[in-house]
Amino acid sequence: MPLVITIGNKWASKLLSECARAISEKDSSKIHNLLWMLNELASPYGDCDQKLASHFLQALFCKATDSGQRCFKTLTTVAEKSHSFDSARKLILKFQEVSPWTTFGHVASNGAILEALDGASKLHIIDISHTLCTQWPTLLEALATRNDETPHLKLTVVVTASIVRSVMKEIGQRMEKFARLMGVPFELNVISGLNHLGELTKEELGVQEDEAVAINCNGALRRVGAEERNSVIRMFQSLNPRVVTIVEEEADFTSSRYDFVKCFEECLRYYTLYFEMLEESFVPTSNERLMLERECSRNIVRVLACDEENDGGECERRERGSQWFERLREAFSPVGFSDDVVDDVKALLKRYRGGWALALPQGDHESGIYLTWKEEPVVWASAWKP
């Protein structure tokens, strides 16, 4: 008997969820029917439903055919071939112009770092993120305009994504040029030989006894295997930093990793929010939006169709702020963001269109602050000390 589903509002999420359940139940005729129907309706260039159907269809097909690992490597290789410094910089700056998704964490983290390192003459910031150093020009400006003597800043950038390695040389040259312009004594070190963050050692970071250390982790911990996260956090603790700033997107792909349907529903919930945000932030013909959506497509395949046990690289296992809180407080104490930092974040959000807000955590088992989109928490920022 053929499968019949009425196509109406939010049709993509209904069809996709039905297909995920069929894959979980190994119902091959239902899987084939749904994959065919989704393929007929999906388009990476259509409306939000068509885009969601297109990108999740790819992951569901990979899951059904056990081809996720191969597909992910192909998608990554294609992305790397078209990746250049100029295209990456343009993409990031355009995204920051239309949405506070990344700048929210930058402003909160920079505020906490500046306050924690105030008065020190030798600063060492360990940056573990994929944001191509776009966070640091405003911090350099703030250091240049301080009333006391301008401190020496050593920035150690830890790169694990191969797509970022290719552009780090040019980023480094630009950072050094900007630091000279600002009059800030500056040294840049890049650690780029790692497959994943779990390989990073204390010795590689070259921390000196007379340096005030800050560790900035922006979207980096979710790329560490769940079983390795506590050891990475303990390694951070061993550096005796004055502050550790953590920014992560608000989704849980970890606790449900062995329950495909549950993990699929959380993945669909999160990326539906993200795609709707992109649709409202960018013009329909935006190339930057298409590039961001393609990046999501790779991540969706990684979450839903790749067996991480057989893959030596990074993962894509997000956790919510409340889950990170429980992990981090084993080694650190939460530092509340000061009123000045919160005011800076609120001022930032006023520069964007309506729908964005700052929210404080509810309950005793959380800390930090949340960026919300239409009242849904989407990004969590926090600061910690030993």
UniProtKB/TrEMBL annotation:
It is found in: Nucleus. Residues 92-157 are annotated as: VHIID. It comes from the Eukaryota. Residues 305-385 are annotated as: SAW. GO terms for cellular component: nucleus. A motif (VHIID) lies at residues 123-127. Its main location: nucleus. Coiled coil: none annotated. Pfam families: GRAS. Keywords: Nucleus, Transcription, Transcription regulation. PANTHER family: OSJNBA0084A10.13 PROTEIN-RELATED. Belongs to the GRAS family. This is Protein SHORT-ROOT-like. It comes from Populus tomentosa (Chinese white poplar).
